[in-house]
Task: inverse folding
């Protein structure tokens, strides 16, 4: 792209560390780079835009302990190569650590899911349930995909809807699982706001204009890695905790997911009126 003469590249990084080299080379060629939703570990990026991923983790953990605040807990993290997964876990632990320290919660399993892959989450959950003889009281999963994967294994053991489990992204499948009483909570990140913001930033960068609303964060704080040096300009959008009580107002009425998708296979007697 740099050789073709582009001015700005918006990048969704599969691996935030590996992408840094490409960004550094592009910037040497005079190309501006925006890290979209996933941090690229380079101080040469012009902006990193995402959501408050630490708050995502807090909201997930709060949603679970609202239902069960003691017993055997399982942590199901996201992809190890995605820095967002690290920040989400940090937020989860902010909420869980006091309960762990007091002895109310015991972490009996802690697994990360490569590429946030649901079938991998299913296999992990199957193994953990076997190892723990189904004695799992809650699952703090990091997104809807891994939560739904875990729920496949939980359903086979009759635990779906009995053991609280979290997620994020407010996917149609995740919200449908919530209204059917299986997944407990998700975290709504209105990605409809992120894409226009990225395009607006790209246009301004191409024109050499200033971008307003950016705040500098250290790479060490963003990655929780003290070896990382330097700062990057960032903008983080707010997130909303969603459960059965507010999924209609937050997700359906806002048009983020359709009424038919969210209430798929739900009896008419249990559906709210169409918005």
Result:
């Amino acid at each position: 792209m740099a050789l073709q003469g582009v001015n700005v590249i918006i990048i969704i990084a599969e691996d935030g560390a590996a992408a840094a080299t490409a960004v550094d080379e592009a910037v040497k060629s005079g190309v501006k780079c925006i890290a979209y939703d996933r941090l690229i570990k380079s101080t040469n990026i012009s902006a990193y835009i995402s959501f408050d991923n630490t708050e995502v983790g807090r909201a997930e953990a709060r949603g679970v302990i609202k239902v069960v605040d003691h017993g055997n807990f399982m942590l199901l993290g996201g992809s190890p190569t995605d820095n967002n997964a690290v920040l989400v876990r940090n937020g989860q632990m902010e909420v869980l650590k006091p309960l762990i320290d007091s002895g109310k919660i015991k972490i009996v399993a802690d697994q990360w899911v490569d590429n946030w892959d649901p079938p991998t989450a299913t296999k992990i959950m199957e193994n953990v349930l076997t190892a723990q003889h189904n004695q799992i009281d809650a699952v703090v999963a990091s997104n809807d995909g891994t939560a739904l994967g875990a729920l496949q294994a939980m359903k086979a053991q009759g635990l779906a809807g009995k053991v609280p489990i979290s997620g994020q992204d407010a996917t149609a499948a995740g919200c449908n699982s919530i209204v059917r009483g299986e997944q407990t909570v998700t975290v709504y990140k209105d990605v409809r706001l992120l894409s226009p913001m990225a395009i607006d930033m790209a246009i301004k960068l191409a024109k050499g204009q200033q971008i307003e609303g950016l705040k500098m964060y250290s790479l060490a704080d963003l990655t929780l890695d003290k070896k990382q040096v330097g700062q990057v300009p960032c903008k983080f959008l707010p997130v909303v905790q969603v459960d059965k009580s507010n999924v209609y107002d937050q997700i359906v009425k806002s048009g983020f997911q359709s009424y038919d998708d969210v209430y798929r296979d739900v009896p008419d007697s249990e559906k709210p009126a169409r918005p």
Notes: The chain is about 40% helix and 20% strand. Residues 83-101 form the longest helix (19 residues). The chain has a mean pLDDT of 96. The longest strand covers residues 105-112.
